[in-house]
Every structure is written in C-alpha cells, then in structure tokens.
Automatic annotation (TrEMBL):
CDD domains: QueC-like. This is 7-cyano-7-deazaguanine synthase. Signal peptide: none annotated. It comes from Clostridium cylindrosporum DSM 605. Belongs to the QueC family. The gene is queC.
Length: 238
C-alpha cells in the first residue's frame, strides 16, 4: 500500500506518479473552496476525474447547484448521491434551522459538526471508485485549520485507507492535497493553477449560503476570507 500526501514545509503539491497504478480518480466534491481546489489538483494529476457530491439535505441546496455548475463547466463526470439518512442519524446546524451555528467552546465541537460525515463520504466514494475502476480517491480534508473534527485527521485518513483496501480487496490511494496547508496556502494552490478568481467567485463555503466571498460573518467565511487576505498581502510583498 502506498500513501502519499503533501508534507509540511514543502511548496510542491505534486505527488509522484505511482508505478502502474491507474490514473483515474474520484474527488469528494462539495462545491466549496477546498474541494474545488482539490478538483483542479486532481485534473492536473490524473487522466480521468470523477466528482461525487453528497446530498444530505443541506439547508443551502445552492451548495449542490454550485457543485453541479462547476463540474459541468469543467467537463467532469459528476455523481450526486443521496445521503439524507445522515440528517436522520445526526441532526446538525448544516441541515436544521433550529440549530444555531456556533463555534465550540473549550474543546467542544462546533454545532456544524456532523458525526462520522467524512468517514461515510469517503466510504461511499470508495464504493463508487471501485465500481468505476478508479484507484485514487481525493478529499479536501485538512488538519491545519482543525476545528476538532476527528475524521479530518491524517491518522484517520490513513486508517480508513487501510480499511477500504481490506474491505474491497483493492489498492486504493486516498490523497489529501490540503492536509497540511492553511487557508492562505490553499488559495496559493488555486492561484498556481491560475484558478484563484474562479474559486473565489464560483464556490460556496458560507454557512449562510452566500456564494463567493459570502456573508463575511460566519466562522467559515471568516476562515476563508482571512486566508485570502493573508495570501493576497503576502503575494504583494513578494
Ligand atoms: Zn458566511
């Protein structure tokens, strides 16, 4: 089994091509900044790319529309899978109007946390990948801006990679190109692909459902916009 990702302190996002592994990837794709950047990364790294979006009855169905529009524009095969059961299992602020979006205090998880979400998404992405004959799975999870989500951690991704391979008797490689990047570096990556404006204008990350630069007030917008401002300032100084 071979696991590759980006390591701290490296400016290269490129993975080495892996022997005789096939060049087909499934990208877990929400239509947000991170997964759109990962989609561009995958389009550079692999010959064939498939995007998969999970519909778990998000309050902002615009998120699904964003994903659809981007995949269509980039000519990427796109699957939208119904995951409404996630809301039955774990009610959360992303799906329910009666749960406020709150940052977790003192080690508590924020109310936007959905128990087991990444594990389920990656597992279903794995099933789709195998059906489609793809060996690579790409996800935008990141430990740097860690909000305490346990299934965003590198150790979990590596563990799930082993589990998927054993479960399906298949040599998947799970790629996490953003794992060690902060938000400014994620913008830098989009810029390197010549896609900074594209990601800035067309993606939806805002918890209040506003596309592009968003509401500028929710935790997600603050993280995204602080990263963007930092990147643009650093770029100016260079
Ligand atoms: Zn917002």
């Amino acid at each position: 089994m071979i696991l590759r990702d980006c390591y701290p302190g490296t400016s290269s996002y490129r993975i080495e091509r892996i022997g005789d592994m096939n060049k087909k990837a499934v990208v877990v794709f929400s239509g947000g900044q991170d997964s759109t950047t990962c989609l561009f990364w995958a389009l550079k790294e692999f010959d064939e790319v498939i995007a998969v979006t999970f519909n778990y009855n998000q309050k902002h169905s615009l998120e699904i529309d964003c994903a659809k529009d981007i995949a269509k524009e980039l000519g990427v095969e796109h699957h939208i899978l119904d995951m409404e059961l996630l809301n039955q299992l774990a009610p959360n602020a992303l799906t329910r109007d009666d749960i406020k979006i709150e940052k977790g205090e003192d080690g508590e998880l924020p109310s936007t946390f959905v128990e087991g979400r990444n594990m389920l998404f990656l597992t279903f992405a794995g099933v789709l990948a195998k059906v489609k004959g793809a060996k690579h799975i790409v996800t935008g999870v990141c430990e740097t801006d860690f909000s305490g989500y346990p299934d965003c951690r590198d150790v979990f991704i590596k563990s799930l990679n082993v589990t998927l391979n054993l479960a399906m008797d298949y040599d998947f490689v799970v790629h996490t190109p953003l794992m060690w990047l902060d938000k400014a570096q994620t913008w830098e990556m989009a810029d390197k692909f010549g896609k900074l404006d594209y990601v800035r204008e067309k993606t939806l990350t805002c918890y209040n459902g506003i596309i592009g630069d968003g509401c500028k007030e929710c935790p997600s917008c603050i993280l995204r916009n602080n990263g963007l401002n930092k990147y643009l300032e650093d770029k100016k100084e260079k």
